[in-house]
Amino acid sequence: MNKKLSRRAVFQGILAAPFAAGLASVQTPAELKVVSRIIEVNGRAVKIFGIVNGGGGNGLSLMLGERFRARVKNGLDVETLLHWHGLNPPSAQDGVPMLSQAPLKPGESFDYDFVNTRSGTHWMHSHVGLQEQQLLAAPLIVRETAEPLFDEQEHVVMLHDFTFRDPQEILAELKGGGGGHAGHAMGGMEMAMVNDVRFDAYLANDRTLADPEVVSVGKAAQIRLRIINGSAASNLWIDLGALQGELIAVDGNAVFPLKGSLFPLAIAQRADIRVKLPEGNGAWPILFRPEGLSARTGIYLATHGAEIDRLASEGDVAPEVNLVQEMTLRSVAVLPPEPVTRTEILTLTGGGADYLWGLNGKSSMHDTIFTVRENERIEVIMQNQTGMAHPMHLHGHYFKVAAINNVAIEGALRDTVLVPPSTSVTIRFAAENPGNWAFHCHHLYHMNAGMMGAIRYSSAA
Ligand SMILES: [Cu+2]
To answer: Could you tell me the pTM of the whole model?
Structure first.
């Protein structure tokens, strides 16, 4: 190669990069800074956390096939660490203290660099203490094509349950309050089974339904909603109201489209929903309703100049999130049909008056639940022996939801599945990402009260 050619190659490479790679160039790592920021909730200014990128936006978008390259800087005055929920990085870059890497001290940076094979709607969040309750989370979107395959608009919605209180105080109260409800009386036993923390607000892209985000849409437009349940402790329903939608992906994995207007979304799960708007002008609310409560949040899809009928922040009580829809989901991609080499029973335990939760009766957080060998095909039968539902998340792998109460289903590919009380959910995954991996309930208070453990590869340190 002569000098002239190589210089031209470099020049073209630099020019082509932003087009080829979407928002984050392959030439330089994306910048992600963990910051404090102020938002207004119910008319009150409140300091929360956030993750801003080099362009001043929230979180990160990249293309499938692009290396995941990001420099994370801790701009807080406390330690933090980010986990890439939905990606399967090498274990040392998974962002879990004690299992993968040390937390970043104030002012410290860490460079992430790995081959990413997962597309879809994912998210990033702190795995340190209770920081996630203070909104230390952001979208992480991996697109397969630079432009949508269909003529459609895309919109990302990040959901949170919100409290003005110090989450440490809430956890302390849960632990000390006889398994109570953080000092608030709830509406009877049935409600007590569903929610154990009372929240001050529910947010969609940081806003309440009283001050909602209004998304400008074209007439008769097709919209792809990428919805992320970033709640600490709230399973939700997505309510399209008068609109019909199609669920096309769960946890970033394509499913055979499922039509409907009401879709469950457990803590930490994601749903991609395609909505086709009717002809003409109008404004359509998309609501998000925590189970067992009348509270709701939402956004509006509105054509230019359309009048918006503001909805109240309270509506009908939402039913409990269940697995009725889960049983009908069918992944487009399939796991190769290899025989299961290891079946493990994982009981979800605890939740008594001491608010101590566990796996197999142990509240050990970072201890090994079981060990696997590379290339094994693992089946885990999760049996919930507690009175509450647990959204169970396995790091470093995606899994097939293979059976519910021992009834085999076609099933979706996921990284987080809800296990309701007195229910068993069977998952299967290929052990192909060596390391030490967290396996935990994604209800932040259950996790911090012990419902977490680790799966270790025998080859890992
Ligand atoms: Cu739980």
So the answer is: 0.91
